[in-house]
Amino acid sequence: MSFPQTASSSQASGKVTDAITGGTLTTIIRCLAGSSLDLVERGKTIFLPGDPAERVYLLRCGAVRLSRVYESGEEITVALLRENSLFGVLSLLTGHHSDRFYHAVAFTRVEMISAPAASVRQAIEADARVGLMMLQGLSCRVLQTETMIETLTHRDMSSRLVSFLLVLCRDFGIPADQGITIDLRLSHQAIAEAIGSTRVTITRLLGDLRSEGMLRIDRKKITIFDPVALSRRFS
Amino acid sequence: MSFPQTASSSQASGKVTDAITGGTLTTIIRCLAGSSLDLVERGKTIFLPGDPAERVYLLRCGAVRLSRVYESGEEITVALLRENSLFGVLSLLTGHHSDRFYHAVAFTRVEMISAPAASVRQAIEADARVGLMMLQGLSCRVLQTETMIETLTHRDMSSRLVSFLLVLCRDFGIPADQGITIDLRLSHQAIAEAIGSTRVTITRLLGDLRSEGMLRIDRKKITIFDPVALSRRFS
DNA sequence: CAAAAATCAGCAACCAGCCAGACAGGACTT
DNA sequence: AAGTCCTGTCTGGCTGGTTGCTGATTTTTG
Predict the structure, then answer these.
(1) What CATH number belongs to B2-141?
(2) Are the C-beta atoms of residues B165 and B222 closer than 8 Å to each other?
């Protein structure tokens, strides 16, 4: 499978765009009744399946992992949210309150703000620009999630992994001395849970990529030397 | 892989919820400057990659397939949108207009309404309830897309197919004399493109399911006899 | 601060599942 | 009636899942 011609255009939903609305939304949500600013330590749970869905969250710093836990103990990652992502959208849905069905965990140290869905609704009715901004935030979420679906439909694991690494570069990449470093401490297991593979396979494939000189891993942080070259690695 | 205990709760984003907002949104969008009601024949293109993204769409009847076409000629399905889905969200993103990067095709005969993003923005500013409804519509989209990600992370194709069929039941299912019929004419190829597999594999797996007495296929329409039993088919 | 515990990375052997490619017969379209 | 698209089946071959073990690294705890 080869990459689409317009691959780069999918970067349109980049960090820059939502940083603008995200920043403004922060100040707005902070003023709502019942809002709070929370600091969550790495690994701590934000909400659990079964909790009532009544708050909307805006991630300010760090990464949040949404996952589904199966009876077998297996766990899959549904989304890795980056800065300025809106989440807990379930609570926005019409009146009758439902329960969360995902597990939200702080993947890094997290700084986020949240407010009751009711307050958010009021705020929107009071000032329509709030709704517009949230709409843009959610649009970003949709586009990001769709990119992830593209990643997951790649048939061979190698392409899938590469595609995922590029997504991570987009969402969590910071410029490094040589290349781009993904600013997350990723275990092979965590990657496997995100792309529907196994720990062993990820170990092998990352080993391949490293010996090909595409990336470097230092204390669980991956540095991609040349994302463009990596994206060409599709046949 | 086994299904999560809370599987049924993910149905919270069911058709009922968005039918309400969808219906109201229709009348609102119809009144916007530059809005239009379009009928599109099965197989016709709604927008192409590279087209300017300037309109927002609301699907009223039928199904729309969003897909990505690769240079190799391969095509993968990013989303199969059902009634009352909002799409073309890219155009909602901040000012500077970008280009579509997905291919949107009418998967069935489609009835949809659309309006320029600018009109939508104005409408939201004029009446905040419009923003609220669109927000709910998009929230549904996010939840649907995330369910699809769950489907795609199943490791064996059999689970993946079953999970996909259940999603289709949720989104396109109509009660039949015995069981639920998915109201779409699905070729094996189309299914393969949606779950990242191949036509041949889908043929084999559907054959297995049929000989197990789980479903029936009549003129490309699949009827699931007992969705609950099917969901138990995970080991 | 060092010892203990837990988590993680790497390697190997085995084998099932799925893909590729090819072909024939059936169903639908026009 | 011809052509296109779709389904069904087969063979070989390889990817990637599974299991099990070892040493390294990180985190927790006394």
Answers:
(1) 2.60.120.10
(2) yes
